[in-house]
Amino acid sequence: xVTAETYHVPVLLQESVDGLDIQPDGIYVxxxxxxxxxxxxxxxxxGPKGHLYSFDQDADAEKNIVADDRFTxxxxxxxxxxxxxxxxxxxxxxxxxxxxGVSSHHFDDETRGFSFRFDAPLDMRMNKRAGLTAxxxxxxxxxxxxxxxxxxxxxxxxxxxxAKTIVDCRKxxxxxxxxxxxxxxxxxxxxxxxxxxxARVYQALRIEVNxxxxxxxxxxxxxxxxxxxxxxxxxxxxxxxxxxxxxxxMKAGNAEGRVEQDFFxxxxxxxxxxxxxxxxxxxxxxxNPRSRSAKLRIAEKV
Length: 302
Prior knowledge:
The chain is of the alpha/beta class. It has helices spanning 4-7, 13-18, 37-44, 81-87, 104-108, 134-140, 143-154, 159-170, 178-185, 194-210, 212-226, 240-252, 282-287; strands at residues 27-30, 51-55, 71-74, 93-99, 227-237, 271-273, 295-301. The protein has a seven-stranded mixed sheet, with helices on both faces. α7 (143-154) packs across α10 (194-210) and α11 packs parallel to α12. The relative contact order is 0.14. The model has no long low-confidence stretch (mean pLDDT 91).
């Protein structure tokens, strides 16, 4: 049975919610509901007139829905935040929290194919109702396109060799399970980095399956337009690709980090940085291994 406690252990819980500087009557959005840990903490700080909208596209997350009149669950990809806020008649929000990456539940679910620890079908879809699976990508993408996925999203130096090996292997039989994939690529992994490099292969596929980078850009663009002056963004990242996008948006107002300056040479950005990068304490890292690569960035709309 999946419960809020087992679904996902919230990372940097107090620090990320503190960063929102919650106003009791404000309107807030948690774009990564998961087990509901961050959402419950936000609700605990809201008054009777405050409201929280929480997004998650995974049907499993609905089992953790909070029974509270101040809470609305949105079963959708967070990239559509502007459309959904318009649907609910919300023109501005006071803060947005995002705990990016993959929940503990997805890594621990033996049936979803997110981890090479289990032999399972190569699915990796956050939303099991639509889209290509990881198996579809491995068996149907061209060699060049596969190489691009591994290089861009896994930052793997041997991306071309990986792609060629997979294409050669699938001529004999389809790559359908995590065991099939691991067996295919492990000969290309350096022994001292085997688990790290294999994790990057899985990361690259997961990002491609779920269009994570495009969704993140769309969500941050939507958040920028929705936040009122003084509203806060509190975002937790886990790898350099997503962290770079968040950092660029907070610094320059766009995902590419394209800096614009006024007449006096001052950087014009819709945000003011609130914190230096916050990382989990040693104690939290021991209790929750998923937190070890986490970085928290907070910015305020100006």
